Here is the input.
Amino acid sequence: MAEITEIFIMSMKHPENADPIREAARTDFTSLKGVTSWKTLVTTDPDRPTLFAEIFTFPDHATASKITPEFAKRQKSRAFLAEVDEILVGQYFTKHQPASGDMS
Here is the structure.
């Protein structure tokens, strides 16, 4: 099965306060069997609101579906979620595989 990437694009209430809380949640959540990684990206345009991409990877869809609900149940993850102002997008992604013969 294909690796699953779960991506959340969000704004934070107080980004500087969220950093240590995120790191505690990351350490806790990535300790679960089946969580391959959690990385964070941040936008760079100073003229636009700062957004964060929280990117989780799992070995396959079954594992992602099983593990993802655990996030909201864990104390350190709930503390991180309390720092989130708005989640704009949250969805599973996998590598795009064009239909055979489709070169677009």
Observations:
- The CA atoms of residues 52 and 62 lie 26 Å apart.
- The first strand starts at residue 4 and ends at 12.
- The chain has a mean pLDDT of 94.
- Strands lie at 4-12, 37-42, 52-58, 84-93.
